């Protein structure tokens, strides 16, 4: 049965509408505008397309590496839906091949069972660079082999992303991954500019958490950072939490990149949407202090960021206009993934968020189903 809403304010991914009717049926938007039925439900606040997180390791107390199950993906989905995420790429950091296989099986099952918001899988590692390992476990970092290729080639995983270090994966192997339908992102890399550019020429289309765990820009070598900033066809992820990148570094990225090529990610760990203050990561413990996560070995270990928080941060710290900040968290990651999401228009999936004046999420719908309500 069709649901009809009247939104006080509706941002469709392109422009703002005031006092507009929205009709949803069969999980999709069937009409925007028009004469609303008398029993239409009024939505107070700002309705917008749901947010899409291409890098999220956990939530609701579940960390994907520690719990490669459909149940864990359900916890992540519910935890992040509270903060506006309606589509996400569960992200497995560098781990043993059997953990990767279990993660792939969980994603496949979640897609079959329709766990709300699961779009596919992001393997961050294991083909990374040890000097830029960050919180990844050195002993599991390794070159690409047929075992991982068999996982990346599976056709039951939805959308597929792999973050790799281009100095450790040859351009012909990057091409192979792209041919398997994988979105290749460069990250955790100490590559020089030439090596990074060769990977882009081979089909890599993204840079994972720009600035973090990558070779910096030098006067005579652009490194990973410089190559990311000048590669117009590549998207760059930003962890806009104020710990991973400064406002100035984010502003620089926004000035250098073409519009639409900077996307907000959370890199969230299990503590988002949970009261816990610490969790185990391999043989270390990661502890939360405010909104900062630090491992026992001292490095930043993911974030305590959520997607709507990232939107608020770039708006408040970088002077990004609200509509554009929402696009950086919705439409642009959808475009990176090649998914028809991030817009409210006739025919689009009804992935929606309702926010109050303070930009706090009040309600979330995924595929027309209300999955979160604050009140
Ligand atoms: Zn990382």
Unreliable segments (pLDDT under 50, ≥5 consecutive)? none
CATH class of the largest domain: Alpha Beta
Helix/strand order, N-terminal first:
EEEEEEEHEHEHEHEHEHEHEEEEHHHEEE
Spatial strand order of the main sheet: 5-8-9-10-11-12-13-14
Q: What structural class do you assign from the helix and strand content?
A: alpha/beta
Shape: globular
Largest sheet, in brief, is: 8 strands, parallel
Helicity level? 25-40%
Distance between the termini: 24 Å
In CATH, what is the homologous superfamily of the largest domain? Metal-dependent hydrolases
Number of distinct helices = 10
Beta-strand content: 25-35%
Name the ligand types.
zinc ion
Question: What is the average of the pLDDT values?
Answer: 97
Q: In the CATH classification, which architecture of the largest domain applies?
A: Alpha-Beta Barrel
Number of domains: 2
CATH topology of the largest domain, anyone? TIM Barrel
């Amino acid at each position: 049965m069709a649901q009809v809403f009247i939104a006080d304010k509706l941002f469709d991914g392109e422009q703002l509408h005031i006092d507009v009717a929205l009709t949803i049926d069969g999980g999709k938007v069937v009409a925007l505008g028009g004469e609303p039925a008398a029993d239409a439900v009024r939505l107070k606040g700002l309705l917008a397309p749901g947010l899409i997180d291409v890098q999220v390791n956990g939530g609701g107390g579940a960390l994907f590496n520690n719990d490669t199950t459909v149940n864990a993906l359900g916890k992540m989905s519910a935890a992040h839906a509270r903060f506006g995420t309606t589509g996400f790429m569960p992200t497995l950091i560098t781990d043993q091949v059997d953990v990767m296989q279990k993660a792939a099986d969980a994603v496949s099952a979640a897609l079959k069972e329709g766990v709300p918001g699961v779009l596919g899988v992001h393997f961050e590692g294991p083909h990374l660079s040890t000097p830029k390992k960050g919180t990844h476990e050195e002993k599991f970092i390794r070159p690409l082999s047929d075992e991982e290729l068999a996982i990346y080639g599976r056709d039951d995983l939805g959308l597929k992303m792999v973050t790799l270090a281009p100095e450790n994966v040859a351009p012909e192997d990057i091409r192979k991954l792209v041919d398997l339908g994988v979105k290749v992102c460069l990250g955790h890399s100490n590559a020089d500019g030439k090596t990074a550019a060769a990977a882009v020429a081979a089909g890599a289309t993204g840079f994972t958490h720009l600035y973090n765990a990558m070779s910096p820009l030098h006067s005579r070598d652009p490194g990973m950072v410089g190559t990311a900033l000048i590669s117009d066809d590549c998207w760059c992820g930003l962890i806009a939490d104020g710990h991973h990148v400064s406002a100035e570094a984010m502003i620089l990225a926004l000035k250098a990149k073409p519009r639409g090529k900077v996307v907000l990610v959370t890199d969230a760990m299990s503590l988002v949407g949970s009261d816990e203050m610490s969790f185990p990561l391999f043989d270390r413990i990661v502890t939360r202090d405010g909104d900062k996560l630090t491992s026992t070995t001292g490095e930043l270990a993911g974030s305590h960021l959520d997607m709507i928080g990232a939107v608020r941060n770039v708006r408040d710290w970088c002077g990004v206009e609200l509509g554009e900040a929402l696009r950086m968290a919705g439409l642009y990651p959808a475009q990176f993934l090649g998914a028809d999401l991030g817009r409210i228009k006739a025919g689009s999936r009804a992935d929606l968020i309702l926010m109050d004046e303070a930009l706090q999420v009040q309600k979330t719908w995924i595929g027309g189903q209300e999955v979160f309500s604050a009140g």
